[in-house]
């Protein structure tokens, strides 16, 4: 694993998490646009569930961005002059990769569930 590749990958993860933060904001806006159309308790409970999920995701993304930015700083000042990665940097990089993979899957599931929920709200109100 080369230093430049890891640094590049970490920077791409930062851009990805920044994108998810924007996407999360967009989903919150969509929810606020349809909240007045929700007429039943179950629908309101689901709206509250998604609102809570969005808040949690914002917190997760903020913490992950902080960790990623710390990692970038470590790449800028490697402990070895020969540019070989230390075991700690490799371990941190792999842990961050696992976290990014989990966040990707989790976001896709949440977004799909949310889109299905919004579709149901809109269909219910058209009947």
Helices and strands, with pairings:
Layout: H1 3-34, H2 41-76, H3 87-126
Helix pairs in contact: 1-2, 1-3, 2-3
Spell out the key features of this protein.
elongated, mainly alpha, 127 residues, single chain, 3 helices
What is the strand tally? Answer: 0
Largest sheet: none
Give the helix/strand class. mainly alpha
Residues in helices, as a percent range: over 70%
Determine the strand fraction and express it as a percent band.
under 5%
Mean pLDDT: 88
Count of individual helical segments: 3
Radius of gyration: 19 Å
What's the gist of this structure?
The chain has 127 residues and is mainly alpha-helical. The chain has helices at 3-34, 41-76, 87-126.
Describe this structure in words.
- With 127 residues, the chain is mostly helical.
- The chain has three helices and no strands.
- The longest helix is centred in the last third of the chain and has 40 residues, at 87-126.
